[in-house]
Each structure stands twice: as structure tokens, then as C-alpha cells.
Amino acid sequence: MTGNLINRAPIFIEDAACLAFFKVCKKLKDEWPAKVIAYALMRDHFHLIVNPRDGDIRGFNGALKSLSAREMINLCAHNQFLRDRTDVDGSTHQVWQESFKAQPLWSSWMIWQKINYIHANPVKARLVNSAKDYRWSSFCAFYKDSQEPLPVDRDWWWPDDSKKLSMAVKKLGWRTYHRRDKP
User: Fold this and answer.
1) What pLDDT is attached to residue 177?
2) Bond before 149 cis per omega within 30 degrees
3) Confidence (pTM)
């Protein structure tokens, strides 16, 4: 998953905002069983590889953005995320862009490719010289057994993931699925 802050606001340059986001992730992971595999908080967006137990990545993403938005609104200047007018659902603030971007990762090759991309992102953005030096990614949690800022799951799969894969292949059709899995 990737989530962009509205107007690409650089909220995650503040430690408090990063810590609040990870607090929400930890709580949501416990309440909505999910495996967190890799992550990085960039200045204005996040990357997250997650495998919710129920397979509802869209729902998990919505819950994460909703709960973290409340934290961001409380931390930042009150009017920073204020909408010009109240939304049809009654909301007065918007923290996240409305887009949803998630890519199913059904092979170890794809997962490793995305883990490496996520860990290299802070280096590519010139925030640090080495991925191991970036505090807000899973690099140290993944490679150095650190539990901070958010623990990762090295056992990526749930026991019934093969059933979810079969359903996805049927839904997408083999040709579509096969093309997506190629490098």
C-alpha cells in the first residue's frame, strides 16, 4: 500500500507525527489481525506491505488512514487539513488523498522486490546515505531484529493464503495474474 498526504504535506518530518502513525499501526494490527512485513514513512507519504488475516487490504487501508488522520489533525495546526467546505459525509478535514493504491504480492520474488524498494526509498530521496540510518523504515526491524518503531513479521503468509490466491487467480484470470507476477 502507498498513502499520500493531501497536498503532499510534509507531516512526517516531525517525530511526533511519525510516532503517532506507528502507534495507530500497532493498535490496528492487534485489533485487525495483520502481518506487517515492511514499511517506510517518507516526508509526505507512506509505503506499507501488510497481509491482513481476512485479506481485506482495502478495508485495512481505510481503517489505517481514518485512525491516523485523527491523530494527525490533533497534532498539527487545526486548520492545516481543514476542507474548504464540509464533505457530504460531514467531515470537515481531509488528511489523506482519496486515491487507493495497493498491489497484490503473491510471490516471494515480488515481496522481496517491494521490500528492497521500500528500504531504498529514503536513500533515493536523499534523506540518508544508507537505509540502515533511516529511523522511520522497517530496515532495522527487518535486518537487525529491532522492534522499533514497529515490529515486522518475517512469516509473511497466513495458513489459508493459498485459498486466497486461488480466489484471486479465478477473479483476475490466469493471464492477468501471470503478467502481473513477471519481473
Assistant:
1) 42
2) yes
3) 0.81
Give the count of beta carbons closer than 10 Å to the beta carbon of residue 83. Answer: 11
Type of residue found at 131: A
Task: Pick from 18-27, 53-62, 89-98, 142-151 the range whose average pLDDT is largest.
Answer: 18-27
pLDDT grade for 26, boundaries at 50, 70 and 90: very high
Query: How do strand 45-52 and strand 2-4 relate by DSSP bridges?
Result: antiparallel
The pair phi, psi for residue 156, each rounded to 5°, is -70, -25
Beta sheet of 45-52, edge-to-edge order: 2-4, 45-52, 34-41
**pLDDT-based confidence at residue 154 (cuts at 50, 70, 90):** confident
Domains of the chain, start order: 2-155 (3.30.70.1290)
